[in-house]
Design a protein that fits this description.
The chain has 170 residues and is mostly helical. The protein has one domain.
């Protein structure tokens, strides 16, 4: 494999990982994953990722963003996007990837990144809620609804990444 192609594939994989993380912190990460895959398709043709897979990725992205929108409208609560929450989610992502990679290899890296970042964000949000006076705390139902939405969105992002990488490396 030529070095330019290897560098491009490395950037591709890094953008997929950033897409997973972006989905967790409330940004449209599935759209980043979708755009990255379509750029890959434009550069390499439909040799490895076909039309069926492309349509499935679009469908998953629409579903994920619809879930995210619906849970945001229902709960009107956002998990903390403070610098502490972001730092905790990054640490959680690194720890999750380190713990699950030896067990599940590449799948463990993706799952560890997702679950670690999600848990780090959730833990820091819970800590920040405990520090507030009771009348200023978010209702537990709103936190739960938001967490379920983020988990669903992140699961769709991980599924899109696994699907894309499995088509490329098969």
């Amino acid at each position: 494999m030529p070095s330019l192609e290897m560098a491009g594939l490395t950037v591709f994989i890094l953008l997929l990982l950033v897409g997973i993380y972006a989905a967790i912190i409330g940004l449209p990460g599935t759209l980043l994953i979708l755009a990255t895959v379509f750029i890959y398709i434009l550069l390499g043709g439909f040799r490895k990722i076909g039309l069926t897979t492309s349509f499935l990725l679009v469908f998953l992205s629409i579903i994920a963003e619809a879930i995210g929108f619906a849970t945001d409208m229902k709960s009107k609560f956002r998990l903390g996007l403070s610098s502490r929450c972001i730092a905790a989610s990054l640490v959680g992502a690194a720890l999750g990837a380190l713990c699950l990679t030896p067990l599940l290899l590449g799948l463990g890296t993706l799952m560890g990144l997702f679950l670690g970042a999600f848990c780090g964000l959730l833990i820091m949000t819970a800590i920040s809620q405990v520090r507030l006076k009771p009348k200023h705390r978010a209702p537990s139902g709103a936190i739960f609804t938001t967490a379920v939405g983020i988990f669903a969105k992140g699961t769709c992002a991980v599924t899109m990444t696994i699907l894309s990488l499995s088509k490329i490396y098969s």
